[in-house]
Amino acid sequence: MASCSKEQNEDVNDEETVEIPIVVYLVDGEMALSQSYSTHLEKVFDYTKIPYANISISDFNSDDYISDETRVIYINNTEPLSQSAKQSLLEFVSMGGTLVFPSLNEDQKAGFLSGIKPTAEFSYDLQAKGIHFERNVLPGLEAKEIYPLKTNIGLKKDAFIESINVLATSITDREMPVIFEHSIGNGKVIHFNTFIEFEKVDRGLLFAPALKGLQGVPFPVANVSTIMIDDFPNPVYDIDAEPIKSEFGLSQAQFVMERWWPDMLKVADKFDLTYTAFPCFNYNTIRQPPFIFTEWDKHKSVINNESVISSEWLVEQVMENEFELGFHGYNHEPLIDTIWNSNTEYIEGALRSARKIWWISRFGPMPKSYVPPSNEIDSVGLKHLANAMPEMEFMSSLYDGELMEGANREFDVDPFEPRFFDFPRISSGYTYNDFKLYNLESLYLFTGIWSHFIHPDDIYQIPDADITTAGDFALRNANRLGWHQSTNGRKGMLEEWNDYLQHMIDLHQSIRFMKVYDGASITRNWRESDYEYVANGDAFDVRKRSTNSWVDENYFWNMFVEKSNEPTLLNELNRMKATYTRTSFFGGTLLTINTSEPELKFSDDVELKGGSSYDLIEIYTKVKNAYDQYAIDRDRSLENVQSSSDAIIVAAPQAVITDSVAWYVANENLKAATDMLKARLETQFELDTVSFDKYALYLAFQERPNEVWDFFEYIYWEVSEDLSLDYVRYYLTKESYPSVELNELWLRRQIEANPGNITLVKEYLRYFYSQEYLSYLDGILFDLMENNDSEESYALYIKYLIDFHPESVIEEL
Known about the structure:
Blueprint: E1 23-27, H1 32-48, E2 52-56, H2 57-62, E3 72-75, H3 83-94, E4 98-101, E5 124-125, E6 129-133, E7 145-151, E8 154-155, E9 165-169, E10 177-184, E11 187-192, H4 203-212, E12 219-221, E13 224-230, H5 244-248, H6 252-271, E14 275-278, H7 294-298, E15 300-303, E16 306-309, H8 310-320, E17 324-325, H9 345-360, E18 369-370, H10 379-388, E19 394-395, E20 421-422, E21 427-428, H11 434-447, E22 449-454, H12 493-507, H13 516-527, E23 531-536, E24 539-544, E25 555-561, H14 566-575, E26 579-585, E27 588-595, E28 599-600, H15 616-643, H16 661-666, H17 670-681, H18 689-701, H19 707-719, H20 721-731, H21 740-753, H22 758-768, H23 774-787, H24 791-804, H25 809-812
Parallel strand pairs: 1-2, 1-3, 3-4, 4-11, 13-14, 13-22, 14-17, 18-19, 19-20, 21-22
Antiparallel strand pairs: 5-8, 6-7, 6-9, 9-10, 10-11, 12-25, 15-16, 23-24, 24-28, 25-27, 26-27
Helix pairs in contact: 1-4, 4-11, 9-10, 17-18, 19-20, 20-21, 21-22, 22-23, 23-24
């Protein structure tokens, strides 16, 4: 942060700027949670450009000076602090600073900071689960609930004084505070009374308390929202499937062309949306030449008395409505080295085939935005994508997930292929729930970005009647919604989608929907910009310091303000001729501000209301006296506890309860759920159809159904051949072989296990009775004759000799 006086600020240059953090995290090197949270917040403040620093507790113990310009300090546990360092924190809070404990502070002698009674026994509640938001700790989250299966492991409710301001409680015990605010002098302490381990998707929740201490501190945001349509346009089929079959009596092709697309155009017009469509040309598994387009060209429709290729007509519709065409792939095979059997030169061949059809069909300029099939791609695939499609600039996989599999991306240059800038997606689907809103608001708070995707076929992903244990959040249409109307008393999916969009627009009135290329370009400009913060009274002036130009000359900022100071700051914004919208947040207001220049400069020495009428020395003296008295009372209480024979202090468990498959499903982390199920199945020696059904279902809804065959292969070689065949036979009662190669392999393996089964052998002959499989046919038919002493088996063998070895027929007869 620029530590300049207001006189220096008039012509400040970079050489005179000294970076002093406005936000500090005191990191405990011995505590994994502290290291994890500080890493996540370091990235958050990298996005917001607010000066931030991680300082080790050992360094703070050596030098506990806190700059006047530091507004917020995070720390997990004060026990490792020296007495001097603790006094420094106390003074910081009492003078108006904000102290955040993002997990339970277990220092039994520092409860004064957190509003814990001096007589508290520090007994842990081991039953209370989940988080229920009593206030808008994130915009729009009041009364919403998250993590219903996670145990908080926090202090019991009777440990806290009555004057704390409870912001969130447990779901199962609405009296237990999970997030609360405690006022001390002119400052505040915000305490998370939970050991739930927060991760990347929770960054906004960890960041939100800082804004209470950053009143009058604007930070730049991208203000970009995008709606992506994956697998569209794509091949369409004359397949009748529920629930559309019952609702409209339409095939999949008719639904997409006659109902879904016209409705999507109406939605775009209603909400001033623009779409980016990501076509996929085929759904075959071709991974070597020739790369043909039979699926894309196959379906024809009559439009205006003219026969047209359905998929190409849909492309023309996207272009006529001036939406963006991105790229999803030649087919739906992820560009991953192992999937392409290390024949990675064929990746570029497939992509160049797609380029050719793009040019021949006149689909316009080559696409600049890419969504990987199933959101999966590795470094090899990225390299070949960049080589084959040099116009491509942006890669949109997922914000969360596994980095090595193509997900877990930031809004940054791709970590494996610098020719791409990543613009990951944060949410999906036509319907929303508490966790989806939490997930997207957590990111939106510090970026202003909502990157969302849908599919035309989401409506078809209803629960399988044979699998009743699937979690409600595992499928894209878990509630069996219709498109216009549902038979279960719920709204149709289209109406739910309208409600979803209306909710976002009402909550964030500055929201801007744009094409992925435009939104990602603005986001790249935003990420490449540097900003300077200069203290100005109780606020901070901010300006873009870097000289990089933006494709859009609108600049957006977020800033928190308490209700009591809203008139003052709104007057300042009006003086600057800035426009703004308001969102209820954390007991105050989150302002989203729009300026034509990349800076916000307040009047000199802005004064904000807050604190008390006492001077700072008097305030600290009062707080210090209260703290000292608390220490005396606490010591006395601990002595009484130690002398009492029936007093028990319940220790916190060493580890937070492990998430279950059900929890991962409920929170839409199907990758983790399938990994857990796979690990479970691989250690069992008997057929487990319940776990297997879940495993196969969750793979299918991640668009990874063929991975089930890798599981069969593992069981075959590492566990039991018989068990793997049992699984294959069970699977084939509901599904079919995805390729000729797998059909031949597993049918042959079944025959090897039961060589006298003439039914299996005849099935093999029906499909594989050719010169290509000659090396297998001889053994299969000879073993059949040896193990099945029947005229039919002998006749099959003789026919085989006549067809392929006529010179041996006389000898055999």
